[in-house]
Amino acid sequence: MSAAFRKAAKARQRPHRERAQPAARTKLGLLEKKKDYRLRAHDYHKKQNALRALQKKALDKNPDEFYFKMIRAEVKDGVHVIKQPKDEITPEQVKLMRTQDIKYIEMKRVAEAKKIERLKAELHLLDAAGSGPSRHLFFVDTEREVREFDIAAHLDTVPELVDRVYNRPTIATLQRETVKGPTDPALLKKLAQQRKNQYDLLRQRIEREKAMFVISQKIQTKKDLLDKTHKVKVKKETTTGPAIYKFKFQRKR
What family, per the record (predicted)? Predict the structure, then answer.
């Protein structure tokens, strides 16, 4: 068949059009296309073949055959349910796991405590502006002295250096030497912010170390409760501490 003949035959073909929906069937929905019918029929026959295969397998099965899943399976309300086996752990194994948990928490707590000591060593001479826990108190005898009190004169320094809580030279020192360290207000503000950030980090690490200590105490309490010794709860467990129990004294042999 030549190419010209195929082209002429294709030109004579009528375009395929979907048939119109009859007015009487409008309430039943659109007509199903031929392609959709094929897919639905293929899916139906596939499921029927699977059901026949399962029926044949059930008929060929030996009713006296035993397999281990029988002892942990049952039918409830027509649904096949498999019982999940419970984990069998001895008290000694639980104690060992608790001990390992305590050792891990203690290891992390000790590491956190070392980081706290390093931060304290770096910041022991510094204090962030307005965030230091310590205060410098001056004691006077009368209210008149309170009104006339001059901090700069009392500290023997210039008024510009009164706000410094470290590296505050006296007037005699300023007469011999110049002020050491940064004096630019912008740089001083930046350094103060850095010190504040360091103190915030130190506070967070201290809180984390305390939380780890509380966790290790709670794990140790749960480990102690595994013993069969008679005990009475004295105090309930809180977010800041474990529960407190009073154990009956038993003499060990």
Answer: Belongs to the UTP11 family.
